[in-house]
Amino acid sequence: MATVILLLAITMISLVCIVAGTGSDYVLYNGEVLMAGQNLTNGSHQLAMQANCDLVLYHSAHYDKPVWKSNSSISRGDGEGNNYQRNRSCYAVLKQNGELVVRRDVHYLLWTSAKKAKKGKYVLLLDPAGHIGIYGTRRWISNNHRETEQGQETTALSSERHNPALGSTWDYVLYSSSSHGRLTAGTKLKYGEYELGFNRHCNLAINNTVTGKTLWQTNTSADTCFLELDSNGELTVKHASQRVWSNNKRGDRGRYVAVLGFDGRFAVYGPLLWSNVKFDDISSNFAMPTDESSQ
Ligand SMILES: *[C@@H]1O[C@H](CO)[C@@H](O)[C@H](O)[C@H]1NC(C)=O
Ligand SMILES: *[C@@H]1O[C@H](CO)[C@@H](O)[C@H](O)[C@H]1NC(C)=O
Ligand SMILES: *[C@@H]1O[C@H](CO)[C@@H](O)[C@H](O)[C@H]1NC(C)=O
Ligand SMILES: *[C@@H]1O[C@H](CO)[C@@H](O)[C@H](O)[C@H]1NC(C)=O
Ligand SMILES: *[C@@H]1O[C@H](CO)[C@@H](O)[C@H](O)[C@H]1NC(C)=O
Ligand SMILES: *[C@@H]1O[C@H](CO)[C@@H](O)[C@H](O)[C@H]1NC(C)=O
């Protein structure tokens, strides 16, 4: 019996994918796992899965003063988990119902975000203000084929996605109704070798910068333009106030994100399902409650 459980644990850990802690990965997709010792990083903010099974959010390297933690530490009594088996066995996973859980030894639930929704695709983001947010389900995705092998979403190894535009601070996420909700001509979203931006004459395209191949495009044409993610989740290309393209997917008002994925596809998730901060607590300008006027 013990062998079976151990085997199951090993199988599960090798099946679910592992996020590379490369310094600029701040998105966790559902099915993905943050193992003990790994973290999501956005600038000076880090969400770390610790060896003691506590999931902890740090700002500006103040490791003595976490701004948030799951309080799921299991070894208060016996030091900082100096047991190899033990620190290997705790992890955080974003489930298909949008719930974030911290588990130990596969079966044991130590903490849950508790907010559950319908089965679908969700993302967890560590935003520039240092807040954790879970968005979903996925509302729309560009219709190009995924560039990575089938099934990678649940089995990706660190090597597959540990390359968000080397050493740069390129963005790959738009946030609705914020200063991060717009992509203007001349700016780009980049993840790994994929790039989303406007070509000349305002044709919005995703291309592979290594092969030079265009993977997806809106076929739009205008003199000036920008891409905007609205607070109803709709993605539009506009020329001044005139729409020249839309993904035609509108949802309830809320906070949405559009993410250029590691598979070369662009997708919209939302609204916000769970966050470590309450709406009213959010003081950062970036994450203020949605603003009607697009500044
Ligand atoms: C986050 O991961 C990076 C890369 O693996 C590591 O250097 C850093 O120490 C980690 N930070 C924390 C708080 O665990
Ligand atoms: C943090 O995330 C935001 C939003 O995705 C992005 O614009 C910013 O570049 C990131 N910062 C760093 C230093 O990675
Ligand atoms: C963890 O414990 C601290 C101190 O008791 C508390 O303020 C905080 O809300 C707890 N975190 C969670 C996620 O419940
Ligand atoms: C487990 O924890 C010990 C002591 O904290 C550390 O030396 C070791 O590298 C950790 N092992 C893993 C797999 O994280
Ligand atoms: C890739 O897209 C960018 C715009 O995002 C464009 O400037 C560049 O010319 C494109 N490259 C190729 C080879 O199509
Ligand atoms: C752009 O045109 C190509 C070729 O006609 C088409 O396959 C593609 O679906 C169009 N893109 C969009 C977003 O409609």
TrEMBL record:
<keyword id="KW-0732">Signal</keyword>
<dbReference type="InterPro" id="IPR036426">
    <property type="entry name" value="Bulb-type_lectin_dom_sf"/>
</dbReference>
<dbReference type="InterPro" id="IPR001480">
    <property type="entry name" value="Bulb-type_lectin_dom"/>
</dbReference>
<feature type="signal peptide">
    <location>
        <begin position="1"/>
        <end position="21"/>
    </location>
</feature>
<dbReference type="GO" id="GO:0051707">
    <property type="term" value="P:response to other organism"/>
</dbReference>
<feature type="domain" description="Bulb-type lectin">
    <location>
        <begin position="174"/>
        <end position="281"/>
    </location>
</feature>
<feature type="domain" description="Bulb-type lectin">
    <location>
        <begin position="25"/>
        <end position="147"/>
    </location>
</feature>
<protein>
    <recommendedName>
        <fullName>Bulb-type lectin domain-containing protein</fullName>
    </recommendedName>
</protein>
